[in-house]
Amino acid sequence: MTNENTDNSQIEYVLQADISKAGYEENKTAISNIQINVGQGELVGLIGPNGAGKSTTIKSILGLMPHMQGQITIGGSNKRWAYVPEQPIYYEYFTLWEHLQLAASAYEITEEQFIPRAEQLLERFRLTKERDHYPTSFSKGMQQKLMLIIAFLLEPDVYIVDEPFVGLDPRATQDFLALLDAARCSGAGVLMSTHVLDTAERLCDRFILVNSGTVVASGTISDIREQAALYDRATLFDCFQALT
To answer: Among 194, 152, 225, which Cα is nearest to 44's?
Structure first.
């Protein structure tokens, strides 16, 4: 089945992924027939049980799969994406501030743009005092904040976020959601993979539910309920249980 069953002619997409098949070995398919479209200002939830193909889908979008057939298109004004991984990735001998400088340099952000933006984000996530410290000494939550700061620093057209709530305390979660909402108001789109289904149901505009390497349902919560053959007040968790 396809992911889109509505009239999309008026939507400007910042991410379009049409994955025919992808796998880690040449003749072994891990996922197939997955289409994902994310519009400007839209938050799309990628959900599914462990081993369903969510991580493989994200890796395919990022160009990290060794064997992938399909097409990935990044739209928007600057055609820039930012990825926030579930497990923080950092350089052992770089300070927090040096990580931000590296990201800014890679995306050709001028020093005049970089410094106030970086300082504002550090203050927002309460990491100003740690700017010259090494992330190896940080807690998992602080390391995750570093990943979020880099993503927001880049001001991309599309955010690809994998389990963003892992390790974040309630206040950091609130800060993350506020910044994400502001980014969406500016036209950015978000693809978010998460197991936190109650939060996903509250935040996401649409959902893509994958199981056994392919899409089993997609659309708004009403669409998902219909495809799961459940009643009008069924939760996303109820639909998840029925479809997987």
So the answer is: 194
Residue 22: φ, ψ to 5° = -155, 150
Please tell me the distance from the alpha carbon of residue 184 to that of residue 165, in angstroms, as a whole number.
Answer: 18
Domains of the chain with bracketed CATH: 1-80+156-244 (3.40.50.300), 89-155 (no CATH)
- The label of the residue with tokens 């052992």 reads 92
pTM: 0.91
Q: Give the pLDDT confidence of 60-113 residue by residue, as tens digits.
A: 999 999 999 999 999 887 889 999 999 999 999 999 999 999 999 999 999 999
Residues in CB range of 144: below 8 A, 6 or more apart: 88, 164, 166, 167, 168, 172
Phi, psi for residue 160 in degrees, rounded to 5: -115, 110
